[in-house]
Amino acid sequence: MRALRAVELALAPVRLLPLRPEHAAPLEAAGCADGLHLLSVTWVPGPGEGEGYVSKALAMQAAGTRWPWVVTLADSGEVVGSTSFHDIVPDIDRLEIGHTWYAKRVQRTAVNTCCKLLLMTHAFEDLGVQLLGWRTGAENLASQAAIERLGARRDGVLRHHMRRRDGVVRDTVMYSMTAAEWPAARQILRERLAQR
């Protein structure tokens, strides 16, 4: 796997920018809109949490365990969410996509499909990843359906795996896609975007 470096990724209507400290306030604003920060399934920054959210993500990046981006709308530059590579294992050419959230107003639009196409293309074609993973809570059926629409395979469930923000210990559903499975998934994602 080639080394991760700061790159911008773009495909209308989104542009992914490497996370920087100045993104704290816009991420906090996006996270507070419509009460999104109250989600228990992932950390969305709430009031006064923007700087802490960015600091933690950048500390994980410095440790080599996470590579975060902010999700912006290409036409306006508005910050509408965040996503990351994480659980990066260079020795076996493996990483996961996660820490993803979007402002409610862009959910169920082309934003998620474009972001995933950008990240998957970057992982498989630029970095040489051999396996790309996703994880979600067993109770999060919407997230499971979205991951499955990407063409990922359900690998199994890690029982009593991790604590959510609300203190509940969740079971985690694991998904993956190999480099050999990527071309078929890429075609499906491109066709889905063309239909929009």
Description:
It is built from 5 helices and 8 strands, in the order ββααβββαβαββα. It is α+β, with helices and mostly antiparallel strands and 196 residues long. An 8-stranded mixed beta sheet has the order 1-2-3-4-5-6-8-7, sandwiched between helices. A hairpin with a 5-residue loop joins β3 and β4. The radius of gyration is 16 Å and the shape is globular.
Q: What key attributes describe this structure?
A:
alpha+beta, Aminopeptidase, 32% helix
Question: What spatial order of strands do you see in the largest sheet?
Answer: 1-2-3-4-5-6-8-7
Radius of gyration, CA atoms, in whole angstroms: 16 Å
The end-to-end span amounts to: 33 Å
Structural class: alpha+beta
Number of helices in the DSSP assignment: 5
Helix share, percent: 25-40%
Bulk shape: globular
Provide the CATH top-level class: Alpha Beta
Order of helices and strands: EEHHEEEHEHEEH
Strand proportion, as a percent range, falls in 25-35%
Give a topology summary:
Elements: E1 9-11, E2 14-18, H1 24-32, H2 50-63, E3 66-73, E4 79-89, E5 94-102, H3 110-126, E6 131-137, H4 141-149, E7 153-163, E8 169-178, H5 182-195
Parallel strand pairs: 5-6
Antiparallel strand pairs: 1-2, 2-3, 3-4, 4-5, 6-8, 7-8
Helix pairs in contact: 1-2, 3-5
